[in-house]
Amino acid sequence: MITISLCMIVKDEEDTLPNCLDSIKDCVDEIVVVDTGSSDRTKEIAHQYTNHVHDFEWIDDFSAARNFSFKHATKDYILWLDADDILREEDRKKLINLKNKLDPSVNAVSMIYHYAFDEYGNVTLSFRRNRLVRRKAGFKWHDPVHEYIAVDGPIVHSDIVVTHKRIHHASGRNLAIYEKRLERGETFSARDLFYYANELRDHRQYEKAVDYYQKFLDREDGWVEDKISACDKLADCYYHLGETDRERETVFQSFLYDSPRAEFCCRLGYQFLNNQEYKKAAFWYELAASMEKPEKNMGFLLNDCWTWLPHLQLCICYYHLGEHKRAYEHNEVARKYRPNDRTILSNKEFFETNFPDDCR
């Protein structure tokens, strides 16, 4: 059996830290908490779970803080979580099973990250992250913000899910770090350009975001999944700027990096649906609905586009095309994913009342 050190960096997390540590404490052999300047009860709470609580003077560098936390780990493997992450019961069991069975030559284990949810608790955004790393491999964190850990060697892609339970809303801290770096004259890597553009978009600075997404996409380097994601986010910027043609061009640009993804098919479908071109819209939504979600993909996945959304939109398309039976069938598929959705239930009642013969 392998042993695990949990390493965390925290600041002002008194509202979330207990839930996180309660969900993981029985699965790990050591807990290391690094505080980066809390002014609440975070450190007091951490001391209730571990004696390994350390201070780190904040220098606008998340990687430096995470690397500092890793230096205090003593077990075979290091697991990292944020204070607003938890493991649900089924995932605790999976992690304990992994401890018992993991080949100690494995360098890293990726886990699924359920990052955002809709009002019904369905996952809307998920991706993979390398969560568990072999300590003696000496892997390091890189980049001051939107940091990542570089791993190589044998990697296991597990089905363990880390669930994000956000309480605090995002601040402008990350954007400020990037802009301080620009003021110092730092040269941004491809990854910096991508994540800086994301921050600009999140803060609705769409024109400036467009500029930095283009700079990123013009580079030869850069992870292909970030290129695909950049196309999606750039298209979203053009949508908000009212530049429909450029939005569509950016969608097609994404096809240069990989076969069409459901997110892009839904975006094209939405454009045609808004233009009342229902047959064209149905083509793209049908393509999205036919795709199988890639479970081992390390990039960002908008789960709505891979599950219920294309079916709900196909219900609208086929209704306007006079194909009521097909419209009802797609609405029923959407209902399997969102059984309490008011729109879907209203559609169901409408079809069963007005077209009962098509609902059998």
TrEMBL record:
One of its GO terms (molecular function) is glycosyltransferase activity. It is an enzyme of class 2 (transferase). Residues 5-135 form the Glycosyltransferase 2-like domain. Keywords: Glycosyltransferase, Transferase. Its EC number is 2.4.-.-. Transmembrane segments: none annotated. The keyword Thylakoid does not apply. Pfam families: Glycos_transf_2. The keyword Glycosyltransferase applies. It comes from the Bacteria. This is Glycosyltransferase.
